[in-house]
Write a structure and sequence with these properties.
alpha/beta
Length: 174
C-alpha cells in the first residue's frame, strides 16, 4: 500500500470512527472472548495507533444514544473523508443511522467484533435478522474482534488513496 502525497499535510485523511450502543462496555460483557481488549479506551488507543502508522487523523465518537450519533454525523460529516461505524445494538433496526450515513456521501465501513450472521443465527434462528447499515456501506468487516477496526481502517485509507490517485491522474497508464 502506498500513500498519496503522504508528506503533504493537506493530504492527510480524517477518518471518523463511530461506536453505537454498548460498545463502550467492551471488556465488561460476559461470555465474549473474541477480542482481547479490556476497555473502550484500549480500542481507541489501538485505532489511533494504527491511524498514526497510516498517517491519518482519527476522530473517535461513541454514544449509547442513536440521536447523539445522528447529531454528530450531521455536525461533523463535512470535516471527515470517510467513516468506520460499529452500530452496536442499532445494527438490525436503525434506518435513521443508515440514512444519516448515506447523506454524508462519504465512504463508510461497517464493523463488528463478532460475525453478525453467525451471531443472529445463534440467538434468533427463527427470525431472519440482518444489518440495516450494510445495504449502503462501502464495505463490512466482522468477526475479527478489535482487528475488525484495524482492517476497516486499512481498507478505507487504501480506498481513499486510490480514489485520490484516480482523481489526480496519478497511478494511471496515460
Amino acid at each position: 500500500m502506498s500513500r498519496i502525497d503522504k508528506n503533504n499535510p493537506a493530504a492527510k485523511w480524517r477518518i471518523a470512527v463511530l461506536d453505537g450502543p454498548n460498545i463502550a462496555n467492551i471488556g465488561r460483557e460476559r461470555g465474549h472472548r473474541d477480542h482481547t481488549l479490556g476497555s473502550w479506551d484500549e480500542l481507541d488507543h489501538l485505532v489511533n495507533k494504527v491511524g498514526g502508522l497510516l498517517e491519518v487523523e482519527i476522530i473517535h465518537f461513541a454514544s449509547n444514544y442513536e440521536g447523539k450519533l445522528l447529531e454528530w454525523l450531521h455536525a461533523n460529516a463535512g470535516d471527515v473523508d470517510g467513516i468506520i461505524v460499529n452500530p452496536g445494538s442499532l445494527t438490525s433496526y436503525s434506518e435513521g443511522l443508515r440514512h444519516a450515513l448515506e447523506e454524508t456521501r462519504k465512504p463508510y465501513v461497517e464493523v463488528h467484533f463478532f460475525n453478525t450472521v453467525k451471531h443472529f443465527a445463534r440467538v434468533s434462528p427463527h427470525i431472519r435478522l440482518e444489518s440495516k447499515i450494510t445495504a449502503s456501506a462501502t464495505g463490512v468487516v466482522s468477526g475479527f474482534g478489535q482487528h475488525s477496526y484495524t482492517a476497516a481502517l486499512i481498507g478505507l485509507v487504501d480506498l481513499l488513496d486510490e480514489r485520490a490517485a484516480q482523481a489526480t491522474g496519478e497511478g494511471t497508464d496515460a
